[in-house]
Design a protein that fits this description.
The protein is an alpha+beta fold. Helix content is 39%, strand content 21%. It folds into 2 domains: 161 residues, Periplasmic binding protein-like II (D-Maltodextrin-Binding Protein, domain 2, 3-Layer(aba) Sandwich), CATH 3.40.190.10; 148 residues, D-Maltodextrin-Binding Protein, domain 2 (3-Layer(aba) Sandwich). The radius of gyration is 23 Å and the shape is elongated.
């Protein structure tokens, strides 16, 4: 038996404490380098990232891995768990947005590959009709009394804005902006469930009520409320980022943003890469996983399209799993190339 075959023994613990090993057939070991190995996977609390998680889970399973989860977690517990080795990976890292967790995850985990590179935008949007009626181009406009009154849906004298739930990376940036731009007395950030808050905002829009909201891409919101047609991206007064992102200020103004009030557009958030975050010891023991993560990626327009299907009523985990399987089948040549690279790395 070769050294490689020995490494693929499946250990069975007996009641007496002895160990027996069942060898994995050579053909299976070649096609399924993950046979006998369990991957403990997480996914983000924002359901627009579940499609990516489901695709990567199914690819890992095609390599023979048994995948536990994915367990849905907020950012802080995930980054702590992956650093400590309590979880192995997720593919929902947003960078530089998640740079604030670096001191945590760097103790035992690392970034590998790109799910989507550079296409993840963040910013503030207003319904187009209100932007035109009130001349809104900038967050600074929400200090004007007539604008606040138009966007005040709960009667507290402030403009209501769909923001981010506590614990999300975007919450840190939005809170920073509220202070940096002196908006505390003018804007009320809604931090309830994002999906529910946005559904409420869409319903308000359909009734002709002005709406202000934060969003990111890829996300179903920009399919339901199309920038340039239904809504517009507005600018920040000046780029002002939290200390840990301050050196990325130049990346927070972007050219060619569809539906922005200006070009280039001063979004106030750097463009993000969506990246896997993986426990380092797990990576070292599983070169096939590293190779898969280094080669795989998902076109951001495909993520948009799937997110729109979720918003149209296909939002259960079962639906998402089916969407992922359909995507892998429709992109079989691409996916098979990634899998072959992973198998080759395990030899």
């Amino acid at each position: 038996m070769t050294k490689r075959s020995l490494s693929r023994l499946v250990a069975v613990t007996l009641a007496a404490g002895t160990m027996l090993a069942a060898p994995i057939p050579a053909a299976q070991a070649q096609d399924e380098p993950g046979a006998g190995i369990t991957v403990r996977m997480a996914q983000a609390t924002w359901d627009t990232g579940w499609f990516e998680a489901a695709i990567y889970k199914q690819l890992l399973e095609k390599l023979g891995y048994t995948v536990e989860g994915p367990t849905t977690l907020d950012n802080p517990p995930f980054y702590q768990a992956v650093a400590q080795g309590d979880l192995d990976l997720w593919v929902n890292g947003w960078f530089p947005l998640h740079n604030s967790y670096e001191t945590t995850y760097s103790q035992g985990a690392e970034l590998v590959g790109y799910v989507a590179k550079g296409g993840a935008l963040e910013g503030y949007l207003v319904d187009k009709a209100s932007a035109e009626e009130f001349g809104i181009t900038n967050l600074e406009d929400f200090k004007r009394d007539e604008v606040k009154a138009a966007f005040d849906r709960d009667g507290d004298g402030k403009a209501d804005m769909v923001a981010c739930p506590p614990g999300w990376g975007c919450e840190i940036n939005i809170e920073h902006h509220l202070d940096a731009y002196d908006l505390r007395d003018h804007v009320n950030p809604i931090k309830a469930s994002y999906a529910a808050s946005m559904a409420d905002a869409v319903a308000a829009y359909n009734e002709g009520t002005p709406i202000l909201f934060y969003t990111w891409t890829p996300n179903w919101t920009v399919d339901t409320l199309k920038p340039g047609e239904d809504v517009v991206w507005i600018e920040v007064p000046e780029v002002n980022l939290p200390e840990e992102l301050a050196d990325l200020a130049d990346a927070a103004t972007l050219s060619g943003v569809t539906g922005c009030v200006n070009d280039p557009c001063k979004l106030g958030f750097p463009a993000n890469d969506i990246r896997p975050v993986v426990n380092s010891e797990f990576l070292e023991a599983n070169p096939a996983v590293r190779a898969l993560l280094e080669t795989a990626s998902i076109p951001i327009q495909d993520i948009y399209a799937q997110n729109a299907r979720m918003n149209d009523g296909e939002g259960s985990q079962e639906d998402v799993n089916r969407h992922a399987a359909e995507w892998i089948e429709a992109n079989a040549d691409l996916a098979n190339g990634w899998l072959e690279a992973a198998r080759a790395a395990a030899e």
